[in-house]
Specification:
321 residues; mainly alpha; Potassium Channel Kv1.1, Chain A; 2 domains; four-stranded mixed sheet; elongated; binds 2-acetamido-2-deoxy-beta-D-glucopyranose
Length: 321
């Protein structure tokens, strides 16, 4: 019995060592793969200057894709495969044979990414990650590859959140896909303060601020909203600016009118007059008069005095298949 127990013990020990080392190996592999993936996609085209990239799909490829920007890489495939999944391919692919030297020149998509998509068309998995999702979405939109568009949308639903949305908004917004735009709006409205704190002075980021400020309901107070905006713009002020209040007011322009100052308390308005302030002296006085005695003066014409609805918004994602 003792011998058996010892045997069993050593068995378990070696079993654990083995599985642990396998686990570490798998982890390392994954890391290397990730590195390889990102090294391929960061900026410059892979294997620049080499003419060796030549990939063939299917038995009798009859279309040749040529990538002059990737060292003249070539991709040979079968028209029928493309025609089946995309109307655009059906219309655009040359009717003559690849043997005649007819080729499709591709300059707006990298060989690497196009090759991944063709692999997918030939039944392989498509791996979508941060560095390639925009280019894959571009191909999907350009060639009407709906399955691919759907895959990228699903990726975006899991990848984009309040912390990273500001960095990606501009690029996703360009594709003009309604459910993605609504998804991003949902993030803006459900986590306005987190989103605002990530903004810069760029035009697309002002669009984000506008989306937030135009929302009839927000899960934060108007004063918190104000404070987040001032903090963010204060952080982004250039060093040589003399009057920071005026500078921020000019940067925000008409967006200021979307802050509902008349719905704040007197104490909050007084806090809003602390430097740097988005309010002029006249505006602060007008708001105090309104809040204290409901006296309607000039500034009240331009600012809403209707409190926002307090919503506990959750971001809705269509459940991906
Ligand atoms: C006004 O600002 C101070 C900090 O400067 C803060 O402690 C206080 O809570 C603010 N008052 C209101 C009413 O938000």
């Amino acid at each position: 019995i003792i011998q058996n127990a010892e045997l069993a013990n050593s068995f378990w020990i070696s079993y654990f060592t083995l599985s642990a080392s396998l686990f570490i190996l798998a982890f390392q592999l994954k890391k290397t793969c990730k590195k390889m993936q990102s090294s391929v996609t960061v900026g410059e085209p892979p294997k620049k200057g080499s003419n060796n990239d030549r990939v063939k799909y299917g038995e009798n490829p009859d279309v040749k894709f040529f990538f002059p920007n990737n060292g003249g890489a070539l991709l040979l495939a079968e028209k029928v495969k493309f025609a089946r999944i995309s109307e655009i391919f059906r219309k655009q692919l040359p009717t003559s044979n690849a043997e005649n030297g007819e080729r499709v020149v591709i300059t707006d998509i990298s060989f690497e990414i196009f090759n991944n998509v063709v692999k997918f068309i030939y039944g392989e998995e498509l791996t979508i990650y941060e560095e390639n999702y925009l280019e894959i979405l571009y191909i999907g939109k350009k060639y009407f590859l709906y399955e691919i568009i759907h895959k990228v949308i699903k990726f975006i639903y899991t990848f984009i959140n309040a912390d990273n949305m500001a960095d990606h908004f501009e690029f996703i917004d360009k594709f003009d896909i309604s459910s993605l735009n609504d998804f991003m709006k949902g993030i803006c409205i459900s986590s306005p303060l987190v989103v605002i704190r990530k903004l810069t002075k760029s035009i697309p980021h002002k669009r984000i601020l506008q989306i937030i400020l135009e929302s009839p309901c927000l899960p934060c107070s108007e004063y918190e909203l104000y404070q987040a905006i001032v903090d963010t713009y204060f952080r982004n002020v250039d060093k040589e600016v003399f009057d920071i209040s005026k500078y921020i007011r000019d940067e925000l322009g008409k967006l200021i009118f979307l802050i509902r100052f008349p719905t704040m308390t007197n104490k909050e308005i007084i806090n809003c007059t602390k430097y740097p302030s988005l309010l002029t002296k006249e505006q602060s006085m007008d708001f105090l008069l309104w809040i204290e005695d409901k006296i309607f003066t000039d500034s009240l014409q331009y600012f809403s005095s209707v409190p926002r609805l307090k919503c506990n918004c959750q971001v809705n994602k269509p459940i991906p298949k």
